[in-house]
Amino acid sequence: xxxxxxxxxxxxxxxxxxxxxxxxxxxxxxxxxxxxxxxxxxxxxxxxxxxxxxxxxxxxxxxxxxxxxxxxxxxxxxxxxxxxxxxxxxxxxxxxxxxxxxxxxxxxxxxxxxxxxxxxxxxxxxxxxxxxxxxxxxxxxxxxxxxxxxxxxxxxxxxxxxxxxxxxxxxxxxxxxxxxxxxxxxxxxxxxxxxxxxxxxxxxxxxxxxxxxxxxxxxxxxxxxxxxxxxxxxxxxxxxxxxxxxxxxxxxxxxxxxxxxxxxxxxxxxxxxxxxxxxxxxxxxxxxxxxxxxxxxxxxxxxxxxxxxxxxxxxxxxxxxxxxxxxxxxxxxxxxxxxxxxxxxxxxxxxxxxxxxxxxxxxxxxxxxxxxxxxxxxxxxxxxxxxxxxxxxxxxxxxxxxxxxxxxxxxxxxxxxxxxxxxxxxxxxxxxxxxxxxxxxxxxxxxxxxxxxxxxxxxxxxxxxxxxxxxxxxxxxxxxxxxxxxxxxxxxxxxxxxxxxxxxxxxxxxxxxxxxxxxxx
Length: 521
Ligand SMILES: Cc1cc2nc3c(=O)[nH]c(=O)nc-3n(C[C@H](O)[C@H](O)[C@H](O)COP(=O)(O)OP(=O)(O)OC[C@H]3O[C@@H](n4cnc5c(N)ncnc54)[C@H](O)[C@@H]3O)c2cc1C
Ligand code: SF4
Description:
By secondary structure, the protein is mainly alpha-helical. The protein has 21 helices and 5 strands. A 5-stranded parallel β-sheet has the order 3-2-1-4-5, sandwiched between helices.
């Protein structure tokens, strides 16, 4: 631990997800009066019951990043997780306060935190200690919080598709010379969303994975020692922990996987945790990668004829569209988003969300790979674990805590809107047009999970009734009137209206039995 015990003018804090190559903290840095601070805090690993790989990724990336700054000779205090002098002080803000005692700065400079809770804690600390607090804008994002607020203006509902088109024009991305969208369309979804062929996905080039070096191995041992009872496994840890590794992972994706990314974005298959996905979310969220370079690499691959437009557009939409939109939405709707519970759901998360020990093959596969790697792709998160939590009436805050805990890319600004807004419709549709729900037949179409399941996706009653299907129909039954009013769900609502009284009764009693025994499914 490089502790510099002296008074300084400014403490400049770098949080674990602020590992920018070109840190905003360096603009105006004064080596004579400024001190950089990085803090490993056990409280950040236990605020939710974090997956071991998630904790390890943050710590390993932070340590490698700090090593780079030391090599550059910049003054840095780095507090390690198990620093004995801080053993009584697990919370990040408390550790920082102790450093303030030691270094007596007049000013605390932070890059705007990605989490509302932490932003509040830092503001409260600065106010309590009479420190000037400077919050630097996070240059990583393509749409600043102020720009998003201006775009959102007084709109009643915020829609990603319009935001995305606006961003494409603003950032001159995938445009023809005359400013129209490349290929004459903004959106190539119709060409994407295919399932894998019936016999399976075939050979998919693997993503780049990285053998842990000495620093990372020390972190893995540390995490096992301190958080051995936390969910998840460390044996498969291979995530990029440095910018050089993240750049390599990006290159491998662009060269080998991007061309097929589009068509199979929504496909799922057992023992195929990665599919054709990019696996770049964690590197982006830690800021090891800049979204501009990721988007530019994808666009160049298309312009050079190395990847089809439908795949490239689908990928760019995720980053320039969804990712920036979700961040804007988070700051727009916090702190209310954290409490949102539109349907007033109050049930507890089934225990098997933490163990994967369930008879439902779809949940077993998606949760199983989550525990193995800290990763599941978008459709697994949205249409398997997410929609089940909605249909099973789980309290949104418990669901949000689970998602924040188990994914290596989980940081609240991106996790919470995806959970509360996209998966659970807990905000009542402030930025989505409908609840994302489907019966087990959708899962059967998009995957091979149902082939390995003791439930049958087409059955709504009886011993083999599929819980996804039963609870989907029960949801339609329960919310029939509201769904019938929404043009995007009117057809779904009409289908439940066709059930006769006896079918409806059977459905309701099967659903009630399942809801009362979620742990046993
Ligand atoms: C319920 C739920 C929870 C989620 N929680 C997180 C989370 O904690 N952290 C996180 O980074 N993503 C989250 N996502 C979004 C998305 O599932 C992941 O970004 C994606 O699966 C990461 O894998 P990938 O890098 O292979 O992405 P790809 O599918 O290859 O997409 C490329 C990139 O686009 C971005 N992206 C794609 N979809 C979204 C989205 N909906 N919101 C924001 N960015 C997106 C990611 O940065 C991703 O790396 C969540 C989605 C859902 C439905
Ligand atoms: S039958 Fe139902 S529970 Fe089983 S895998 Fe298919 S959708 Fe999931």
